[in-house]
Design brief:
globular; alpha/beta; single chain
């Protein structure tokens, strides 16, 4: 579905944000890019929809080089959700959700049902918030609307950049649980960025752990816990006691006195 081949990003000042990375995201997979701040994970994500252009390598979607697409058309075909949500304050919730379908000239007679279905899907009721404005919403509601907007045009691919990162721990956990169930139902191809190893293990089918612009390990959460590739990965996992029972992972925070 998505393939990055020897992809790199360098800036004019000589900074190499991403260095010769290669990986494939399978259809229907939730693939997590995880690492500390500045490791290149968000840059990698943004190169997939050409918000940032590559300086080397190739990115393919369904076997087609993304550089062959008009970047605006490419972005409209890919769902995108970010930590800051990015809702337009002058548009109602309904119009924010229906923005991309409107730009794609989808049937406007279906927009009301589409909006209601999206709100229902993320647990916000069938249309009860559609006439409100973003300023009238809580942080958790805004984030749910951001997910709705990313999914509203029914894209094959969704990119998510720390979408729950700014939320309080209780709301964050609730949204993670809801999103996990939603993904199991919809089976979208998702590239998800986070710095939170617990979130990555909880949500991801596979994880790519990044450091200094390179990928240090790609594997399933279970295999990464059982067989960390190096000391950095061990350290990144440290602070939590991950107990693996079959395919189930129990997570316990390590409390030091």
């Amino acid at each position: 579905m998505i393939e990055l081949i020897n992809v790199g990003k360098a800036y004019p000042d000589g900074t190499k944000a991403v260095k010769d990375i290669t990986f494939t995201v399978k259809e229907g997979e939730l693939f997590v890019l995880v690492g500390t701040s500045g490791c290149g994970k968000t840059t990698t994500l943004k190169m997939i929809n050409r918000l940032i252009e590559t300086t080397s390598g190739t990115i393919l979607i369904n076997g087609t080089n993304i550089n062959s697409y008009n970047p605006i058309i490419l972005r409209r075909s890919i769902g995108y959700a970010i930590q800051q949500v990015g809702l337009f304050p002058h548009l109602t919730v309904g119009k924010n959700i229906d923005l991309v379908p409107h730009l794609l000239k989808r049937d406007s007679t279906d927009s009301g049902k589409r909006i209601s279905d999206m709100l229902e899907m993320v647990g916000l009721g069938a249309g009860s918030l559609k006439d409100k404005y973003p300023v009238q919403l809580s942080g958790g509601q805004k984030q749910r609307i951001g997910v709705c907007r990313a999914l509203a045009a029914d894209p094959q691919i969704v990119l998510m950049d720390e979408p729950f990162g700014a939320l309080d721990p209780i709301t964050k956990e609730q949204l993670q649980d809801e999103f996990f169930k939603l993904q199991r139902k919809l089976k979208k191809t998702i590239v998800f960025v986070t710095h939170d190893i617990v979130e990555a293990i909880k949500l991801g089918d596979r994880l790519a752990i990044m450091r200094d612009g390179v990928i240090v390990q790609i594997d399933s959460p279970v295999n990464i816990i059982k067989n960390p590739a190096n000391d950095f990965v061990k350290q990144f996992l440290g602070g939590y006691n991950f107990k693996v029972e079959g395919d189930t992972i129990r997570i316990e925070k390590i409390v030091t006195k």
